[in-house]
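Figure 2 data, in text form.
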Amino acid sequence: MRTRMAPGMDLEKDMNSFAPTVQNMSASQRVHWAMQTFPGHIAMSTSFGIHSSCLLHLATQVCPDVPIIWIDTGYLPAETYRYAEELHDRLDLNLFVSTSAITPARMEATYGKLWEDKSEESHKLYGLMRKNEPLKRSLKDLAVKCLIVGLRSDQSKHRADLQPLGIQYDALKLLPILEWSKKEVENYMDDNNLPRHPLEAEGYVSVGDYHSSRPLTASDSSDRSTRFSGVSEECGLHTDDIKVAVPSPPPVLKSPTSDLGGKLLDAYNLSGSNSHPTIVMVKKRMKDGNDCRRCKQVQELIERDNFNHVDETVFAVEGEEKSVGVQLSKSFGMRTAPFFVVRMPGSDEFTAVESYLKLKKMVKDFDAVEKKEPETNEECAIDFTYEGVHYTEGDCKPKATLSVCAPGF
């Protein structure tokens, strides 16, 4: 489906122009950027789901009166309606409730209970009627040019391919916490004493409509397995009529001091391998001698994943401005810990990476390229098997082997 352009906006041009800048911002910086770039024309959507309070709090700390669009399908659990009231009062939300033009009763009378059909066609039709149509109408009614949404890369396969800035319908779509992990979201909620969705205590890890959500079981492969009876990982709200910016490589963040990267390698006797990325992990060491809570949690993930690529760990010691970690934090403009300083093979420059998820993807992509067999067009000058020994000559890929019988056979 072709994306229509809002009056006075060339969405695709704007998206590709803004994307490199937005990609390297923190979550709060992204919300602030949207507020400054599109004053009076931003909004945020929410489902009041398990982790919705995180971005609701973060966004309203930056822009307290940002319009919050809540798509009420008419089929939400009673607990979600009560949770929405609690967060509305707690965060003083500027809430706009949007519902489908087709009432639940009319939909069921005309189309039946679509979720019981358990087909992709019915699943898509339900989403378009109950979710997408209200969203499109709200974007138009509120003259939204940039919609803020709390999608994360670790939630589904579709979301793993998204970028922080995209397009949906007639607006840019900003994903401030795209690179955050589930644990980081939960830490933010704990740090800010945000209330939890009542159904979380009953084993729910993702909540939408009551008929399409259930608690997590030991056999589920992911949190999204608890939704839509296995028909899809997505409801369709975030897949219809979208465009995604072409990802740009992260910029090399140079230290303002000369050759800090080289000094770091020398200090820790790191050779800077040409066969794999050189990775230094920077943790925050508290005054009591313990690592910061998030540092511990990321370390647990590293050990769980058996991620054996970290060459050295250094510390930003609280209150010690001359500690290596503090110097690196200032040099690369990093405000959270842990983060990683990475040098790719063949490069003399270091890049700072604040997300463990992003680091894993960098290493995975590098390994995939390294393992890829070189393509050759040249045919083998010699290519045959004789007495069990295969002979080839030339820079080539052997074709199906031709067996040559030994004399006397």
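Caption note: The domain at 11-244 is CATH 3.40.50.620 (Rossmann fold).
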